[in-house]
Amino acid sequence: MTNSLELEVPLKVARHQIERVGLAYFNARRKIAPGGVERSESDEKLEGVGEEVEISYLKSLDPKEWKDQDHYSVLGLGKLRFEASDDDIRRAYRRMVLQHHPDKRKAKGEVVINDEDYFTCITKAYEILGTSKPRRSFDSVDPEFDDSLPSQTEIDNDYFAVFNKMFKLNGRWSERPQVPEFGEVDAKREEVERFYNFWYDFKSWREFSYLDEEDKEKGQDRDERRWIEKENKAARIKRKKEEMSRIRDLVNLAYNNDKRIQRFKQEEKDRKAAAKRAKMDAVQAQKAEQEKAVREAALAKERADKAEQKRIEQIRIEREQQKKVLKKERKTLRDKVKDCKYYAKNDKDQLKHMEGTEKICETFNLAELQALNKAMESKGRESFVAALQTAEQKIAAELEEINQTQAKKLATATAVAPKAAGVKEVKKGELWSNENVQLLIKAVNLFPAGTAQRWDVIATFINQHSGSGGAQVLARDVLNKAKALQNSDHSKSSLKTQANDAAFASFEKSKKEVQVSNDITIGEEAPSQESKENVKQNGGAHPNQVNNQKPKQNGISTPSAAAAAPAAGAGAGAAPPAAPMTNGTGGAGGASKTWTKEEQALLEQAIKSYPTTTPDRWDRIAACIPNRSKKDCLRRVKELVELVNSKKEAQAAVK
């Protein structure tokens, strides 16, 4: 408050001389024009925008050739060019208007021709650059832009500087605002890949409508304007393709010479090679492990096989030794019993004891035989008889056990398997008639051991050839009957008696036929002289001799001997007697005699030697076999074919 009161006191004013210096003075002085006129703020803002344009350049412009002029240079924006903002363009144009407007120039006394004045070019430059679409068209064909590609020498000298500049210049055409940088030699792989992906998928906004040769607005009618637009469009598309091709060539040139790409490829190659080597090493290691395991397994197997072979060999040696000892003990037993005349009181006991000796040898083991031989040295007959009883008991026990096992199996099969429809249960005695037994013996010889499903095949064969009605033979029945026949006493078999009776009857029949044939021969008249001459021509034999060799008179064939030897089959006794043999001529009423092995071999060889295409085949085959005619050969082949077919049918029925 004191200070304010003091100011109210009137002061004495004195004049001083002050030198005009300082920032405030110069700022105030700058606002005054050279002619003493104060300048406005807008004039101050125009200073520093663009550069001064020489008047000689402006006067050299032809308003009629405005398309060929550089609009940025006309407005003094030759350095900023496409980077100049809209405000920069407006300020540059205003400055040019203030300096070069025809009215101001006329006021200074300059002669101005409106139609040819360069101010028209300034106005046209502002019309184009001041509007976005025309400016975009002019920027696309900027005369200061270099469309050429760098040479290989420039690339080799400074690769990264050259392409950094080229991609920065061409990045102005990108539709996407953020253009990735080219980078340097130490750029990361992700950055380099992103850069090339961007440029290989480059989208350019550059268009060439500024270079249209014709203006469609100048067309006189609609058709002419359409034609002008079509021509302009075709030219634009062509220039656009050329531009995109230029961009692609630039990118390819950079990519092919990029040391970073080469380094990345080499690194990728090395990585793949390392991965491949690692994989190969792993495979080799795995393979080595497998081979090692295989070798170890093979060695272990070899050692195990050797140990097993050694064990088997040891067992075999022990068995051989045991067999030798057992054989020796059996021989000792047989010799002792033989020396003592089998401890028999009569012939019947001798036969029984001979058979019993073999039973003892078969049923007793080594220890029992050794004990028996030792006991027989002191006790003799008593020990032998006791051993014989023991052998009989063992055989009976084994048979009883076999029968019980078979009965259990049969009961189990009967309980599990359903009964076949239409099959009647047949008693054991009715099932195995003499006919079925004969068929069993024949089938056992026809289908030897080793035949696939042998007992099923034999059962089917019997069922096919049996005359009984509903009695069906099964495989287990066939097996039980075969074992029973094998273990039975053949001397008490009824088959042998039946075979002998049939053989004797056949012999009596053949004997009667021979007697009747001789009676007929004696009752005939003596042969005439003509027949004797014929006989001499045929070989000089007497008619009676011819009759003895080939007795065929009045259609009666004289049989030779009626062989009645019973045939053994499957250990079941004698087979039916063989059919009576004829003289080999193959008479109409008689059966051919049995073929020997030699004749059968000759027949087979002759059939192979003379194929079916041979003329008179069977005559030639018969000529190769002595005492056999063509009919005999044909009949034998037919019998063999029927036999083979029946065998195949039996096997097929089982399958």
TrEMBL record:
Domain HTH myb-type: 594-645
InterPro entries xrefs: DnaJ_domain, Homeodomain-like_sf, J_dom_sf, Myb_dom, RAC_head, RAC_head_sf, SANT/Myb, ZUO1-like_ZHD
Cellular location(s): Cytoplasm, Cytosol; Nucleus
Chain intervals with Low complexity compositional bias: 543-554, 561-583
Coiled-coil residue spans: 230-336
Keyword field: Chaperone, Coiled coil, Cytoplasm, Nucleus, Repeat
Domain J: 70-142
Signal sequence coordinates: none
Record-given protein name: DnaJ homolog subfamily C member 2
